[in-house]
Amino acid sequence: MIWYGLLVAAVAAERVAELVVARRNERWSTARGATVAGQGHYPAMVALHTGLLAGCLAEVWSADRPFVPALGWPMLAVLAGAQGLRWWCIRSLGPRWNTRVIVVPGLPLVAKGPYRWRWLRHPNYVAVVAEGVALPLVHTAWVTAVVFTVLNAVLLTVRVRCENRALASATAPAATVPA
Fold first, then answer.
1. Nearest alpha-carbon partner for 56 in 152, 156, 147, 151
2. Residue 103 has pLDDT above 80, yes or no
3. Cα end-to-end distance, the chain, whole Å
4. Which of 8, 15, 129, 168 is 20 to 30 A from residue 49's alpha carbon, by CA?
5. The dihedral of CA 173, 24, 122, 37: what is its sign?
6. What is the pLDDT of residue 177?
7. What backbone phi and psi angles, to 5 degrees, belong to 142?
8. Which of 94, 165, 97 is nearest to 125 (CA)?
9. Per-residue pLDDT tens over the stretch 40-79
10. At CA 161, angle to CA 8 and CA 150, rounded to 5?
11. Radius of gyration for the alpha carbons in the chain, expressed in angstroms and rounded
12. Which has more pLDDT, 121 or 144?
């Protein structure tokens, strides 16, 4: 259980690193006339993601969930892949990446890294979904995995619609950043 607590703490530390990057990027965007959208759902998103971390630990501890190697090791690999995808997204978007919906008017859509695939418009959310399933299941916290997945599906429906509207209204028409 101690190693799992350290894993969850490492994911929490990664979240703090994301917030540092997001704050820096927010300043960059604001200096260029950015607009912010979807502030109403942001607190729910923060609460849900914080709840994921707390739920993982609480369920494993209170329900005495075992580590099942046949499930835990593959889920750890999925979790590592999700983290890799997330940081690939962050690097690809550069200063335009944020935890909030912040769009600098007139900039073209990014079309490099995982954003070059037109059929996958929001690869960062693929990482979020994978992490939300994998982190709890590393230590068989299946209730947390199910609850987070259902609530996250509702939240992502709102978030993706908001982001798509913001991008459509603020991006340069039919332009992309080369790969």
1. 147
2. yes
3. 43
4. 168
5. negative
6. 47
7. -70, -30
8. 97
9. 999 999 999 999 999 999 999 999 999 999 999 999 999 9
10. 40
11. 17
12. 144
pLDDT digits (tens, 9 = 90+) for 149-172: 999 999 999 999 999 999 888 765
Note whether 107 and 175 are within 8 A (CB).
Answer: no
pLDDT at 175: 43
Total residues found in the chain within this entry: 179
Alpha helix locations (H) across the chain? Answer: 2-30, 42-62, 69-93, 123-137, 142-170
pLDDT of residue 179: 42
| pTM score of the predicted model | 0.90
Q: Write out the two tokens for 118.
A: 């037109």
Rounded Cα gap, residues 149 and 53, in angstroms: 13
CA distance 162 to 152: 15
Show Cβ contacts of residue 94 under 8 Å, excluding neighbours closer than 6 positions: 110
* pLDDT in the model for residue 118: 78
Pick from 95, 119, 113: nearest CA to 179: 113
Taking CA 106 as the corner, what is the angle to CA 114 and CA 118, rounded to the nearest 5 degrees? 25
Measure the CA–CA gap between 104 and 113, rounded to whole angstroms: 20
CB 134 within 8 A of CB 152: no
For residue 177, the cross-strand partners are 110
Q: What is the dihedral of CA 100, 104, 107, 113, to 10 degrees?
A: -20
